[in-house]
Amino acid sequence: MEYCLGNKHKRDGKMEKNRTTPREKNMTQKKITVKVFRFDPSVDTEPHYATYEVPFSNGMSVMNALDYIYQNLDGTLAYYDHAGCSLGICARCTGKINGKAGLFCQTPVEGDTCLEPLSLSKVVKDLVATRRGESVED
Question: pTM score, two decimals?
């Protein structure tokens, strides 16, 4: 006979710690909402926002959230990412995080988040924008 007592099971008179399956962990894992600015000038007439549910883990960066969206939810999302990212050196991944400028690779996610390019007037696609002295072809 088996039944639950808080975080323990009692089986045949012996107490055991509750075992959580990977599926149960996924069902109870905290999720955050990431609202992302979307605009492809070759297709869209107006910018819009897309909202994604992303699994949250302590210490994750905005770049981790974007990577999750790109790899699991929407492979059309455009943003700066490269092998050397996470070092905060090149600043190509600079954007607005909840209205404040920051590096996507360095800024920790603390809850629901809104992401936008730094300059809405220089958008190449989604979160990719040209920087000062840079052209679209660079």
Answer: 0.74
